Hints:
The structure is a single chain. The chain contains nine helices and no strands. By secondary structure, it is mostly helical. The longest helix has 19 residues, at 64-82. The termini are far apart. The model is unreliable at 131-171 (pLDDT under 50).
Amino acid sequence: GGLAPKLAPPLMGYAGANFDDLRAQLARLVQPGFARAWPLERLAQFPRYLKAMALRVERLQQDARRDQARMLQAQAFERALDAAPAAPAAARERLRWAIEEFRVQLFAQELGTREPVSEKRLRKLVECRKVDGAQLRDRGVDAFDLGRQRARAAPGLERVGLKRPAVGISK
């Protein structure tokens, strides 16, 4: 087995963005030289990250709409991270790993996280990194307007029991 073969949609066109997101996540984690690049304490978390991805694949096939709503939450913070290349390296790394933990929280909560993580905590990390809404808009990134994205990507979330939490940067 392994994880990589599971990262292809079972049917052509089925949940393509979701599977693309999983492949992108795996590529961010396991890149050439990753064993030397990542700190040992992070490498120790890789089995949990990979297990969370495997659980996500299983659940995604049962409820792609729910997966997509969660995926959009995580992607918003990844776009904010990508939109702030000038932030100090240590700050970017902290946010990067917090996002990885957030993905575990979203998709495989039963595995637990290394540290407490939530949308609110991630927003605070983004704010601390001097990534404000104006900077994001200047870069063409509307990372925290999840409401419109969710409305387009997964209409009727409320009908399946999901709420549309407002995500924004407050000053």
